[in-house]
Amino acid sequence: MRAMSFKPPLLDIADLIGDPVDPADFPETRIRFRNDRWARQTGLGGLDDATWVRHFARFEPLPDNLPRPLALRYHGHQFGTYNPQLGDGRGFLFAQVQAEDGRVLDLGTKGSGQTPWSRQGDGRLTLKGGVREILASRYLEATGVATSKTFSVIETGEQLWRGDEPSPTRSAVMVRLQHSHIRFGSFQRLSYLDDTDGIAALLAHVADTYYPGTAGLDTDAKACAVLSGVAERTGHTIGQWMATGFVHGVMNTDNFNITGETFDFGPFRFLATSDPNFVAAYFDQTGLYRFGRQPTQGMWALQQLASALLPLSTADDLATALSTYAPAYQASFSRHTLALLGVSDGPSLDADLQFMKDFYGWMTEAEANWQQTFFDWFGGQASQARAATSPQAALYSSEAFAPIQDQLAARAPDRPERLDSDYFQASTPVALPIETIEAIWAPIAEQDDWGKLDDCLEHIERARLAYDWDAS
């Protein structure tokens, strides 16, 4: 294990935002997934399985880190209704580590036991929930989306009862890696309590740890600068969601964090075909968080964060700070669409926006498979022969697709050598419609057969290596 050479920043504000808690004492610990690539990047790659279990199932503290797990306190708007009864009810912040590039990263949990915020819950996670999060986070990472990473999933030997799964069902504890677990709702809670000093202290922590460019600013300017940065990162991520066909499902303000990663996967979905009105959560009866409304909901959530910062700044200044959101979203949506198609920017922003309108309009009208379309035309005109052998090649022969193909042909392929990868030599891409996730889970539930999950994760990894985001 790499020696910790920094003091976890959260130690300075632990009393302000969390409560020390004890983890559950699980009857069994069976490692089902460990993210060795990210373990290496955070200095934890050398842990043997026994030590891994001690840290990520028994939650023995990492050296020179948080002495006890911290269940974070926060409030939030849930489907538009403010709820002051929230907090980490089945998870906690376990540790902070430092990546190879110097970034501070959190290790947080799901399913680690009851906390003061559990209310009537048992504080547990189903094994199926852990498997779903492994798949979602790995797929988003492979397709270039800013996301938390599933770090560890360990089966814990308990039987759980859930209304939305065949029960009893198996239990697990998961560890998630992301930049920060501080949520918009962390600020909302302090605002609700009229704790202006607390808001200022939390802002200072966020600025110093995650927005170092704000150093030296007074409190008013710092609040606006941090809000502007959060808005930009949030817009960037939601633009990526929209290009990837990802539907978060529960965009409550306690599910947005101040560094902009995707996290807290609940009833997520990946679109099979373009449908702006698609709803991921069966309980979202009004379609508040439907796919096409995600950009609007992101702005609404940011406005709630701005309201929580009003004790430190003015409404006009905070509104100005939010103006970074829309251009960040638009640029990200456009650039990520083009990146997933493996082609360069057009001659102008207007040309790119026109392509977005035409391309997604065709996708919706033709009911083309989302992942297959991007896969078939990766590299633009360089993939014309590949697209002609696609399962949906007939769609590309239609008159309606001709303007799309012309626009693709006008764009240079971006690093076309990537088409030589094994991933793009296949006939179908990796995809995670709900039917595929259920098919992966069924043999685990019925025969403890993890082969389909392993195969899917290998396919996802081939996609990640083929896209080669690190070199872009």
What is the alpha-carbon Rg in Å? 22 Å
Determine the fraction of residues in helical runs and give it as a percent range: 40-55%
| Count of strand segments | 12
Give the low-pLDDT segments: none
Tertiary shape: globular
Distance between the termini: 30 Å
- SS-based class: alpha+beta
Q: Can you give the mean pLDDT?
A: 95
SSE diagram, text form:
Layout: H1 14-17, E1 18-20, E2 30-34, H2 36-41, H3 49-56, E3 70-72, E4 76-78, E5 81-83, E6 93-98, E7 104-110, E8 125-126, H4 127-142, E9 149-160, E10 169-178, H5 184-192, H6 196-210, H7 219-244, E11 246-247, E12 269-270, H8 294-308, H9 315-321, H10 325-341, H11 349-366, H12 370-376, H13 384-388, H14 393-396, H15 402-409, H16 422-425, H17 434-447, H18 451-467
Antiparallel strand pairs: 1-3, 2-9, 4-5, 6-7, 7-10, 8-10, 9-10, 11-12
